[in-house]
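User: I'm putting together a teaching handout on how multi-component assemblies are represented. Below are the sequence lines for each component of a complex, exactly as they appear in our records. Could you produce the 3D structure of the whole assembly as structure tokens, so the students can see both representations side by side? Please keep the chain order the same as the input.
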Amino acid sequence: MADLSIEFCGVRAPNPFWLASAPPTDKAYNVVRAFEAGWGGVVWKTLGEDPPAVNVSSRYSAHHGKNREVIGFNNIELITDRSLEQNLREITQVKKDWPDRAMIVSLMFPCEEPLWAGILPKVEATGADAIELNFGCPHGMPERGMGSAVGQVPEYVEMVTSWCKKHTRLPVIVKLTPNITDVRLPARAARNGGADAVSLINTINSITHLDLDRMVAFPAVGNASTHGGYCGTAVKPIALNMVAEIARDPATHGLPISGIGGIGSWRDAAEFIALGAGSVQVCTAAMLHGFRIVNEMKDGLSRWMDEKGYRSIEDFRGKAVPNTTDWKYLDMNYKVIARIDQEQCIGCGRCYVACEDTSHQSIAQLVDAAGKRTYEVIQDECVGCNLCEITCPVQGCITMVPQDTGKPYMNWTQDPRNPRATSR
Amino acid sequence: MIESLKHLPQARSTNEALAEQFTDLAPPLTARQAAIEAARCLYCYDAPCTRICPSEIDVASFIRNIHDGNVDGAAAGILKQNILGGSCARVCPTEILCEDACVRNHDAEGQPVKIGLLQRYALDNMRFADHPFQRAPATGKRIAVVGAGPAGLSCAHRLAMLGNDVVVFEAQDKPGGLNEYGIAKYKLTDDFAQKEVEFLLGIGGIEIRYGCKLGANLQLKNLHAEYDAVFLGIGLGASRQLGLTGESAPGLTAAIDYIAALRQADDLARLPVPARAIVIGAGNTAIDMAVQIRRLGAEEVTLVYRRGTESMSATVHEQHIAKENQVRIRTWAQPEEVLLDASGRVRGMRFEKTRMEGKRLIGTGERFEIAADAVFKAIGQSMDPVGLSDALAKTLERDGDKIGVDAHFRTTVPGIYAGGDCVAPGQDLTVQAVQHGKLAAQAIHHDIQSKAGSR
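Assistant: Of course. Below is the structure of the complete assembly, with chains in the same order as your input.
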């Protein structure tokens, strides 16, 4: 059996599956249930100044798919609405009862050093393993100068990180906001400030949908709404890219990354780890299905690792990073062509109309004497865009087959068609 | 009441208890079920379900509208092609049409989208403030439609929509044709046929005159003279004969007559119900008959067909319904003699076993008898000879025993059109009749307008 245990910026955990700072880690009751279910660690829901935050009623909304599955999830909840004292007491007890699990405490305070200097010893006293700085919350808190209002200004990120490093011996994880043009800049700032790791992504500014009768967005608070933070499976591609950007940035090379964003299965987790993440954090999937999902995640990851011969998380961590590059280094001579397996084809015609209307007119519709439709790829026209493979409802029916062009690797910087080519 | 069965005992149950036997055979989808089912549709391009639909309903489009919560849009899309989409959703043999063509029948899944039930969902749940179609500016033309069945009603509706005024002549005292009189009660429940006609007439410009039977108190030559065009949607009014002695004996009747009596009965408990019944035939009417008489309380019902099940025109789905209702299906046997008791009433039937010899069906010489108190024949319908008996009607060219028409449903007499079961093309299905009526209306309108334009 593969070993799922990790050591992430000095924090040990029996597995890489942590619960992100959010409602599931709001109090001891939930966290104990999570640990009983088998989670490797938690990031306790963000602590702040007393008096605690006050939340509104009606807090979540979702972007549903065709079968009412939740594609994306949105919330306007603030940081903890319980007192600092109560949270610290519960953290102390839970860590004492569950010493092998990672206990990370998320913090959010105004940008004043004495406030941080005051809280950090108290957190340390709980026995927690690390702190996570919430520089990412995109709703409510930024209006008060915290959360993503800090995360969007690299200078602030560096400043607060350095205060924390000065006032605690605990590892400092900086949680980054995706609501920024280039995520590498705050990541570099965090490193410059002495961060031991970064975690990302926090949620994305969002409005999921509207009540078109009342003309108000969801979640509606009376007759008004506000943008929330978007998470869930829909944000995974955005998160993966941001993780990869930091992983392959020479300025942050080797900086531990805790991957967050739409992780709901072992496969999602493996993808984040392959792009460099040393732990993963989950929230939405647990909120939709309960803590039990960690069982299938651990089992699936472990079996896949066994199959691939990976004995530990480190064995495959970051393995996809070298294969993630800039567009200009892609091989211009590489070519794939779609192939339709006629045995598997159910004749829905979706590949045909997609290619005909919006792509390269590379699929032919053939009608036999009995009126039966057959769809065939016109090899000479196909550019290998993958659209037909994507719209096909039968997985594996359309495959993209690499062609032997007989030509060597040649990227855009070497391509004679590039008027600005650097090497010819 | 059916004269030839009046000696039989009445159903041994109450009207209420029997009514329970005739509730919806295929209950409607709930909103949740419709959402799940609609989500299964792949929104195929050049979709095979639409290609096979006799009335050319854009199935993928209406299902996508259901999924997107646009039920009125879904309903309008269906009704635009098939104004009787509600009854077709209930009576269409979808298992040999759209649902058979559905790509999700492929081996990998083997489960088509429930298109018929989705169509019913759209039409049961539409909420139009007014009739969904408006009439074009009045043409001043008047058209006579003979027969208020699916073909005639569909034709009338489309003609009215195109701006014409229509008078429909109906022999019975209710509209709907086979939807009202000929379809199993559990397939069209809750007086649906009448409600649908009421909705259809909501477009305006259509008058129905009842008790007007062609060849009796209505003459084609008069209609031809008085109206700008005539559409014949007269169906097949005569039940075929077995050609045996004893065919008029008490206890022997046409299934279609019994079904009509059942459909019109105010009190099901007063229907005559034999303890043992034989149904001769292999079509959906034979199945409807056998199942309904079982549900009314007949203890033994045997459906006899002279060929094998694979040749039955009743679909596999229909045969399955029969089996579920404990109807015994006896194949490879042909009627030889109606057996009568001392008082001349039916006491059973003698059959001769059959087999194929090359391409010919022959009797084997081996015989058997089945005891029965009633025999229902459901061996098909033919043209009622009375209908086309006047001088002009006799000049209409026939195609077999049906009325001959061209691709636009024109008969050989200019100004006279025909469609539905009384013409040869297509299958004898409600949906086919609706399509005939619709296309004939378009041809009528076109012909009248181009004639007017050329003057």
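A couple of points students might notice: Chain B has 17 helices and 17 strands. The longest strand of chain B covers residues 346-357.
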